[in-house]
Design brief:
Alpha-Beta Plaits; single chain
Length: 112
């Protein structure tokens, strides 16, 4: 199990969301964030650039599909395209049912 975090350009969110839904993820969290990276040589008022952060809890097999989907829609070959981090998870619990690990991550049968 992994937590996949990615920072992307806000205008890429719809395409990435559609691709991730097709890849079979059980859900995701999206936040509006600000930050800077290698393109930080800007006036102070523009130092923090608006970005979108996506967080996904995924099985190992889902992770293999998630990364290519993000790269397909977000990689323009320019500074500021974003970052993807894959963080190992030791456990995950679905609060409503108490299901653990992969069962807590995948979409319950009958729901899509």
């Amino acid at each position: 199990m992994n937590k996949v975090e990615c920072i992307i350009r806000p205008e890429k969110l719809k395409d990435v969301t559609d691709a991730l839904k097709k890849s079979g993820i059980g859900g995701m969290t999206v936040s509006e964030v600000r930050g800077f990276g290698v393109q930080s040589e800007r006036p102070d008022s523009f130092l923090f650039v608006h970005k979108t952060k996506i967080e996904i809890y995924a099985t190992d097999s889902q992770t293999k599909n998630i990364i290519p989907a993000i790269l397909m829609y977000c990689s323009a070959g320019k500074a500021g395209d974003g970052k993807i981090a894959v963080i190992p998870l030791h456990d995950c619990v679905r609060v409503s049912t108490g299901e653990r690990k992969n069962k807590a991550i995948t979409c319950p049968k009958g729901r899509k």
